[in-house]
Amino acid sequence: MSDNKCEKTGFLAKIRQIFFPIYGKEIIRFIPMALMMFFILFNYTILRNVKDTLVINGRGADGEIISFIKLWGTMPAAILFVVIFSKMSNSLSREKIFYSCIIFFLVFFGSFAFFIYPNIDYLHPSLETVRNLQEHYPSIKMFIAMWGNWTYCLFYILAELWGSAILSLLFWQLANEITSSNEAKRFYPLFGVVGNIGLIFAGRTTKYFSKFSSSISEIVDPWQISLNYLMSSILLSGMIVIALYYYVNLKVEGSSKNAETSSKPKKKKPKLGLVESFKYIFASKHLMYIAIMVLAYGMTINFIDVLWKGQVKLLSNGQNNAAAAYFGTFSEITGYLSIALMFAGSTFLRKYGWYKSACVVPIVVAASAIIFFGAIIYGNMLPAGEPMLFVYGLPLTAVYVAAQVGTFTGAFTKASKYSLFDATKEMAYIPLDEELRSKGKAAVDVTGGRLGKSGGSATIFALRTLFPTASLATLAPYLATISVFIIAGWFYATGKLNKSLKLLQNDEVDEIKSNVANPTLQEQMVK
């Protein structure tokens, strides 16, 4: 009887270790942080669906405008944010910085739906004006499109910064401060699981309100109704994030620091200005390797995204609600795939360690790029109007096939990012000192992330300059070739970062031992 009980206990323990390896005393930190991840990603997913819909269907715009906004709008805005964040971090507490940032974003998104978009005809030039200027000045037609849709571009930029500032920087800054290296292996993958449930809810929310408003025939502008509902969801979710952040700082950080963090002696670092901060960062090879990984991911994903969203515009015939519903479906698929990969990734990370886990993502990105670029290139080789393939006797166009292939390969790529790339990247910050974790993380995640996407946009811009008559789809072979070299650099940086992590962790162990006289306690802390 006792043997059977032990076997059941052992079996249940293994199941729990796979699906929920969180212990009782850790619940107070895990649950509110996981819920914060849920609502932050819920917002980011809705914002991503809306921003893409707005700009690709704007006046005189198409999928190509995305690369221009990322290069000439999002990147400068990210640099400006780092400047402001650096100044704020020298004078304000982390809590005040968080509240200031999130309230700013929420005020803008609410204002866009209820004040800016209803007056869009007064704020934007007419479609006829935009097209006439584009005909007279074809070499700068995308800049004219950006001017003709300037409020959409502003929405796009701030929606992008929500992911970089609120999630990548401020959320993970708090997580890294209250989570030990040992806990991170169990916490971070599960944060991703809960967060990706948010993707599913956000995808369903986007689809529901897009189809709901479209079904009401008497509405003159159904997209206006969709925006009102979607931005109201954003505001409610944002207020919940603020409440959770307040709870974590009140109940968690001040009362239940983990043993590893509290045992380390605090090193006092001088407050650095922006220039000194960047000098400090670039002197750290460890941070440079993280930056290369972030850059590589951002560039390759940008190539795929721009081409894919161009196909979605053609497939949706320029209808905002149709495009938003399609992007909502993409978010749902990404969420389901991410959750499946999260459980697998959590086990993989604990079993095979940091390096092998970090290598999974560039492998997935490389495979996805081959499939997607292959579909685009093959479709371009077909005569105009000829079906790309037949399924159950039904002809499928090249645009339809490319859009569907882009949806599933893109979803799988983003799922692997959420499940392993984010977790391994954040673990790489933990052994660093407080100054590098804060300002170094800001420069790498905010500026580095945007630089990766802007670098991809700059590449597309350069190719368009060299081949002005080429369509975006015909540039796929060049983008595929460039992606090969980028992914090779990604693997190189991952290997170097693995060696750096081992050195830092060894130094950390020596530091703990030197500050604790009791040999038994030394052994417990190292574990």
Annotation field: number of helices: 18
Q: Catalogue the unreliable spans.
A: 1-8, 254-272, 515-527
CA-based gyration radius: 24 Å
**Main sheet: strand order:** 1-2
* SSE string, helices as H and strands as E: HHHHHHHHHHHHHHEEHHHH
| Number of E-type strands | 2
For the termini, the CA-CA separation is 34 Å
What percentage of the residues does DSSP assign to strands (E)? under 5%
Helicity, as a percent range: over 70%
Question: What sort of overall outline do the alpha carbons produce when their principal axes are compared?
Answer: globular
Main beta-sheet annotation:
2 strands, antiparallel
The chain-level mean pLDDT equals 79
Oligomer classification: single chain
Secondary-structure class: mainly alpha
